[in-house]
Amino acid sequence: MNAKKHSTTKLFVLDTNVLMHDPTSLFRFEEHDIFVPMMTLEELDNNKKGMSEVARNARQASRTLDGIVGGFEERIDRGIPLEEPSAGLATGRLFMQTEPINSALPATLPTAKADNQIIGVMMHLIDKHPKRSVILVSKDINMRIKARALGLDAQDYYNDKVLEDTDLLYTGTRELTADFWDVNGKDMESWKQEGRTLYRIKGPLCPDLLINEFLWQDGERPFHSIVRERSGRSAVLELLKDYSHQKNNVWGITARNREQNFALNLLMDPEVDFITLLGQAGTGKTLLTLAAGLTQTLESKLYSEIIITRVTVPVGEDIGFLPGTEEEKMTPWMGALEDNLDVLNKPTEDGGEWGRAATRDLIRSRIKVKSLNFMRGRTFINKYLIIDEAQNLTPKQMKTLITRAGPGTKVVCLGNIAQIDTPYLTEGSSGLTYVVDRFKGWSHSGHVTLMRGERSRLADHAAEVL
Q1: Burial (CB count within 10 angstroms: exposed 0-12, middle 13-18, buried 19+), residue 367
Q2: Cα-flanking dihedrals φ and ψ of residue 406, to 5°?
Q3: pLDDT tens digits, the chain, 466 residues: what are they?
């Protein structure tokens, strides 16, 4: 019975970077067994010092291992069952390296290097368990390539990935087919409520719709709406406000394309507390968000101030020995904010230069720039919080930030998952991808992927040909 079980379950050899990336990874392998080489423990020890995210995770991984191993010292070589410490998440066993292993590594691999020693341990395990599937798990691409070059099985740690393929990420918009109204509009009701036009439709598409998803159809009578309610095979759609028209401008800004109009409908909706905007450079994410923030802070007084934070790559580390206050230290990273404020602070004909300077001072007094490092323990009440470059945040950092929101606060996350600067983060495991996927369909959140760059003909052409 036991031999049969062993031939079906796999033995995963963990590289250090997996534990440093996700300290709970020990419990993520379900019924399979885990082997932790001595070199992995040695590297954990070398990386435990400091206040960085990596050092914190290394310490947490060590504590988790200590909790598992405690009381099982005499049975380590037979494997420690993980069912109890993982509260039923994992049913496999944890094996530690209890003996020196001198596996014959190819002469080209220097044994002093930690990666190569882990590969040596893996080769030894394959010799020892010829019928078992032994797999190396590592976040290090080069290590996986090396292992495969030696004929060993290696794979990435997938548990942190929200989606395998980011092309499947929720875009927040859905184009309606030509026959949409024939199929879903049979007993359609229509009514007006507080100046808004609502439609109730019934049909086979309704169960697939998500709350706050945008539906659109082009043609001689274009139709742009947002899903407000959904129950079974019926849904309520609301016609959108047209922010591309000058009469509905937001701080002088109008929507230049369909997705920008969708974004402004979310940004100006007091019922939507959490918004994610994805898009390439130049799609207008920051400009639209700031314009909506200024309108709701200075004109409708819905929020008391705008707080902007962005990841200062190097991520989450100290912002260093730049002179000045927290605000002044953040200035080099806030060039994008200044550029957008210049656009929003157009000179008024009657106010002249003095009026413009006064407006600029008023705007700057209502915008606070904060570093991520000092966010723990804070609560923002009635604030308009903008998280810029959010693709560089891990899911854990994203949770830390979003849970700062107190009553009356709106959180807007902006980013481009094709531009990740943080090591160990990929498009699939970025905190931005994580929140887009987890928040979709909640009635107080919305998401739009902006498609078209609106900078200039030069920038558009450069994006195409370069």
Answers
A1: buried
A2: -95, -165
A3: 344 455 578 899 999 988 888 888 888 888 889 999 999 999 999 988 887 778 888 999 999 988 888 877 767 778 888 888 888 888 888 998 888 877 777 777 777 788 888 998 999 899 888 888 999 999 888 999 999 998 999 988 877 665 555 667 899 999 998 888 888 878 889 999 988 999 999 988 899 999 999 999 988 888 999 999 999 889 999 999 999 999 999 988 999 999 999 999 999 999 999 999 999 888 889 999 999 999 999 999 999 999 988 776 544 455 556 667 766 666 666 667 777 877 777 655 555 677 667 777 777 788 888 877 777 778 899 999 999 989 988 888 899 889 989 999 999 999 998 888 877 778 888 899 999 999 999 999 999 999 887 778 888 788 788 8
Q: Where do we find the tokens 């691409």?
A: 141
Residue showing tokens 């314009």: 291
* CATH entry 3.60.15.10 includes domain 256-465: no
Where exactly are the structural domains of the chain?
2-155, 166-239, 256-465
DSSP 326-385: HHHHHGGGGHHHHHHHHHHSPPPTTTHHHHHHHHHHHHHHHEEEEEGGG-TT--BSSEEE
The CATH topology of domain 2-155 is Rossmann fold (3.40.50)
Give the span between the Cα atoms of 290 and 284, in whole angstroms: 10
**By the 8 A CB rule, do 33 and 12 touch?**
yes
Among 15, 18, 14, 97, CA closest to 57: 18
